[in-house]
């Protein structure tokens, strides 16, 4: 490493302009790997700690640079793209055109599976995108290996299935059935019946915490730890029945969309919501989170799609025109919205992370009778899975998947031994439910030191004045039927001013104490010398 | 129109034959790893707990002496052996791996006070209260040694009688001279029956002596008049000398930074000095509750081990004020000598209960051959634990040590005493004119003066 840095120092002086441009790009990626600002070492007084931290900061810089270089040169695959020339627009490109241009392996990912008998299908993918579980409303559950298009297991549970979700890997999945939620194993055996939750309408799994979150028909939110089966939290939301529930992958927070147009965010350790946002004038139809955790897309029945920035809780963009029944973000930030039998993919046309401009990227319209139930991008592939009323389909969306996977995070080519090892490691790294918070980077950070400085007397006086002014200027309600006498009004106003004054403690106490002492001394000074010993010594 | 979609051919991403290694891909992008800080914190907690589970520092005891062990010497050429001497004049060479005596060196009439080995490993020098210095020829370790359990008795190669009892001995690095501490500091040569050189200052006896590993002509001594003196053999008088408040029982030079020395003091703390500037200690290492009897540095120079009169052995970092580790057993009584093994893995302690004990330097270390993946995992655990060791849950686990009751109570009393002293000092300062009350830092407070 040291040799390469020396080489860099030599070559940096003689760089052609193209190299300099790529240096700028490298800097942005280095920033990403640095994960925030360095520590401010100037405020430290402890010299030993200062030198230790300085050397550590240097190491962080070095490792961020190496990681940026690896990203630039050593990653095996590159992202997909769809580039049109001249007048042609990207949203006019049809799936058949794409199939002509693309290789055989990718064109195998475009298909329609028609199962008209079993109702609208909901889908879920595992984290690596290799397996998919499809649940039809009329009770059909199918576990499919997507790479070989192999049907691993299908079962018919003979009652309504409202939602399906994978647990930590493809060995277990949960289905929300008519009365209760059930957990099944890979070969279709029913493992658990989760009776406590009641009739569940949505199921989601929090991977890092091994928590199965569900919302039921009466609007109760349940969190259950699937490793030992204990119910971690049951929260009564108080907002009535809701069908819209999503998990923010960045911080593990669950967002519910309510019929009043509010989106509330919950964590298992508190009975009150973390955040309540008024998103739409009418009911919220669907919510989706960007993988980086900063963006949230919501759609309402009034045919608007809104993009929110979650750091400031502000609206970034509104897209008019259609009522999106289901939304999904891809790993690369493409947003898919499904209405009726029409899928629209929106892409971020502005490059920066601060500004977002979602515009039309691609469209796909299916056969008129197919009503889209669920859209979900497949991880690590340029594919989106569509669950609809006549079965499920999959279409190609170039540029939506992350091209380079990390074998230790999610490996689509996992062997069974690797899967077992990974399960053990996941269990060892299982996070306690208290770590779910809006800003996950706060863990391990320093608490800001709260030093309550004593306010000077002038400051206190100023505050007091402000409070008295505020009390004086409040408008009293005009009462009728003879209760609005002027004498009563002035009395009430005086009371309010007195209340405002009472919150500030008396400033005169010190004065009186010192006054007493001074009086004592003066009295002592007046006494003749022989009687001085009888003067009060305070 | 240009279109490209992701397609991964299976043979590029899986291995060809089952004898091949599995194919592994890395992508260090932080967006693939949500909640990475929480996961790291959880791993730090697990690593701290695992360290405590695997912490089994005691390896074994070597038992054979009939009286308390007074001193030990290590042979830098032969890692497996250690010499030890007891209060009844019995000197033994132990084989650490089998924990058996290889041979004995009988001869001393009284307690043996000092033991040292020459740098080439051939000559063992011992001195005792019977006013003699004996030189022994160290037997070469042969392949049959470990299997043969017979104990050999070796005759001394030379025996020099002198006027007074000796307190300590140390051998020069890369030389033929050794120094003994007694009524005066005497420098001997292997072949001469009387000292070649002798130094004296005042009338007090010299208690301990240690040669500098970097500069072969410099040695440090401590005397019973509470002083620490540094002598240069090429000059006829002392180079530096300081007087402290309490006497120093033992001195050790840092093998990696030969200008620094650490002194084990009677008041329970160890003082690290820079040999060139002795008026202020560089660091004060406080954790023992009773007199520190012996001190030895690790060959890495980053840690040292101390043995104390309070029946415990502690390991300190070379620049830290508090100990990283404490070792104690119900059976181990007053520890008189400690040695850090030459491969920086073990710590040996010789105590009053006639046993030599072998401890691991890192209590939860896995000894033996470790696979590279295991090694990486250990390093990762160490690093993630160090990153989060300031957080309360992790700190509680990492810091936790079981202390014997007398030490625990004594530490509590010391803490109360220090707190009340500090409170009184603060109040005195608050009620006097600013600047009149000046407290000297602890590094200077314990040194009375520097004498030239």
From TrEMBL, chain A:
Task: Name where the WD repeats lie.
Answer: 277-318
**Main site of residence?**
nucleus
Q: Give the start-end ranges of region Disordered.
A: 1-21, 438-538
Output the SUPFAM superfamilies linked to this UniProt entry: WD40 repeat-like
Keywords (alphabetical) are: Nucleus, Repeat, WD repeat
Give compartment(s): Nucleus, Nucleolus
Q: Spans of biased composition, class Basic and acidic residues?
A: 455-477, 495-504
Q: Where is the BING4 C-terminal domain?
A: 360-440
Q: Which Pfam families match?
A: BING4CT, WD40
Which ranges are annotated Basic residues under compositional bias?
478-494
Kindly give the InterPro entries that the UniProt entry links to this protein: BING4_C_dom, WD40/YVTN_repeat-like_dom_sf, WD40_repeat_dom_sf, WD40_rpt, WDR46/Utp7
PANTHER family, per this entry?
WD REPEAT-CONTAINING PROTEIN 46 (PTHR14085:SF3), WD-REPEAT PROTEIN BING4 (PTHR14085)
Protein name, per record: Probable U3 small nucleolar RNA-associated protein 7
Q: Which organism is it from?
A: Camelina sativa
TrEMBL record, chain B:
Q: PANTHER family in the record, alphabetically?
A: DDB1- AND CUL4-ASSOCIATED FACTOR 13, U3 SMALL NUCLEOLAR RNA U3 SNORNA ASSOCIATED PROTEIN
Q: What name is this protein filed under?
A: DDB1- and CUL4-associated factor 13
SUPFAM superfamilies per record: WD40 repeat-like
**Subcellular locations according to the entry:** Nucleus, Nucleolus
Q: What domain of life is recorded for the organism?
A: Eukaryota
A Pfam family annotated for this UniProt entry: Sof1
Corresponding gene? LOC104730501
Under SMART domains, the record lists: WD40
Answer yes or no on keyword Repeat: yes
* Domain Sof1-like protein as annotated: residue spans: 361-447
What keywords appear on the UniProt entry?
Nucleus, Repeat, Ribonucleoprotein, WD repeat
WD repeat residue intervals: 62-104, 105-138, 199-241, 285-316, 328-369
The similarity comment for this entry is: Belongs to the WD repeat DCAF13/WDSOF1 family.
